[in-house]
UniProtKB/TrEMBL annotation, chain B:
Organism expressing this protein natively: Jiella flava
Name of the protein described by the UniProt record: Carbohydrate ABC transporter permease
Membrane topology: Multi-pass membrane protein
Localization of this protein: Cell membrane
Source species, domain of life: Bacteria
SUPFAM superfamilies assigned: MetI-like
Amino acid sequence: MLKPLNTAAQLGYRTAFGLFELPMATAQKLIGIKRIAWMFLLPNLLIFGLFTFLPIILNFFYATSGGDAILLAHRPYVGTENFASLLSCTDYLDPNTCRRDVFWRAVYNTGWFVVLQVGFMVAFSLLTALILNRDIPWRGFFRSVFFYPVLLSPVVVALIWKWILQRYGLFNAGLEDVGLSSVDWLTDANWAFFWIIFVSIWAHMGFYTLILLAGLQAIPADVYEAAEMDGASRWRVFSKITMPLLMPTMIVVLVLSLIRAVQAFDEIFVLTGGGPGSATTLILQYIYETGFASRPQLFGLAAAASILMAVVLLVLTLLQLRVTRGQAEN
Amino acid sequence: MLWSFISRTRGRNRFDLTDWLTWGYLIFGMLLMFGPVLWVAMSSFKTDAALSEYPPSFLPLATQTAMVKGYDKPLPLYEITAGEHKGSVLAQIRRIGLNAQMVDPAHPDEKINVKIGDRQPKRELTFAWDNYSKLFKRFNFMRYFWNSVFITVVATVITVLFNSMAAFALAKYKFRGRMVVFLLIIATLMIPPTINLVPIYLVVNELGLVNTPWAVIWPAVATPTGVFLLRQYMLTIPDDLLDAARMDHASEWRVYWRIVLPLAAPAIAVLVIFSVMWRWNEFLWPLIVLNRSEQFTLQLALNAFQGDLQTSWSGLLAMTILTLLPITIVFAILQKNITAGIAQSGVK
């Protein structure tokens, strides 16, 4: 049954790549073996240039021009006005006094979201990794259990929780069952914020658990055996051996999750739509709505906001490089 | 037997407090991770009537109905739990205050009054397959499914081809500018596409790709992750193998696809898994460049349905399950490879 399939696949593979045999061999004769490497790099570099490097430069042109035209030629130069408009506030601690109050709400929401989501997620991932690192039966199965939500699409994740948290949903039924009163979870500002953090931890912690688990398993067993011989307590083993040796992995996990949290969008957008009001609107949703979802499309403002976000991400990445280098020197 | 298996602990014989806590945590975790998905799966088989029931039941139960002579619509069946008709099954005609007017399906002429507290709806397990079949009939599900499959497959093939070609050049040739190119590609790892949404949209728009699947496919095929992953793997392939082929007058292209590519299969498998996952689940970028509903991917269609007040939860839940099913099946088969691949490379 599989044999003809296999033969067909091989035939397809040979035909597809064989087609390029003649042009590539000719190119090799013309430009020589030394420079053929560039032929191999060409498609990838072309895509990179078009969709990564060029946009980085264009972003600055958008950020310094106004109007709602997408073509740069039709956009008047406005200098730093977009940045000035985003950053103009009488009191930076109170978003209501800012010209772009939704932007500042989004900035504060993102700040809180990043701190709480990353903090709790890394803590739970570490706890789960430590438990999965114990000598328990069905370890592979339990590892998959915690990893499974990572594979689900953000839209699916949001819909699953929306169904559970709705007014007449499972969660409220459970609460009424034990004598508590039900709550409109996603239309109460504070609870909605709690649930976007909860749901994004639920969806992503498996990934970080997996990385931390790999880090834990890389710690050589004889270190633990030596500590056991010395009669060290469990807490001492954890704080003096496990944590220091896990630190490099921990930094990777922290930085990866920070960078991801700053750009959180998908699940939250489907779960709460940024509401109620703008209580769960994060920075990327502000960019999406300013540039694409609302009319007129303020591309300049969106580009300026994304450059500000890029600065934050750059600082986080440099911080990571610095910390990892510092560790390598120790 | 089972107990001794579960209570197996490293070097110790006693099942102590930490073991209890471990198992408590694992079982709680299992409920928390699988429970919501299972709940939605069960709900997706409920009829609209059963979905609006509160408090909800776990299994898809539906009240049985019966056609009674003299009545146009099927009447709901109730089991009488108290009073003179205790034990019999009656159909309800209407409710009048605290009483229900009921009828015995066998004797349709005789009306019986029962207190509403004395009767229980007669329910049985009914799977509303209709929720699923109407997706295909009314919601154009196959269209969205095909759009998603097309984007996922084509983008993955191009990603593997382009990334492996670049990785081959960077791993197996010494040429001027090699380090510069490599560093440039690695540097883009730090520039997430989310900060360039506006200008990428301009490029896609200028190329006339908006509202075509190619608008989703092209911008992300040159993944720095893929180039890095494959290059590191190809460095381990010995150069002697390549030189032997060159002796036989094989062209460089032939060396690439007959020798290096097959040998890099394990790393390519990891990249394929990632690429499928990224593309199947992608949301923000398709949301920006695909505006016509016939171009929607599954994710966009799901999002559009949930925002549309006309659609009922029954269709939405069935569609949620169908969307997560392919990924779940792939995961069930390949879970070892997926978790190992991610743990080794540290990317998602």
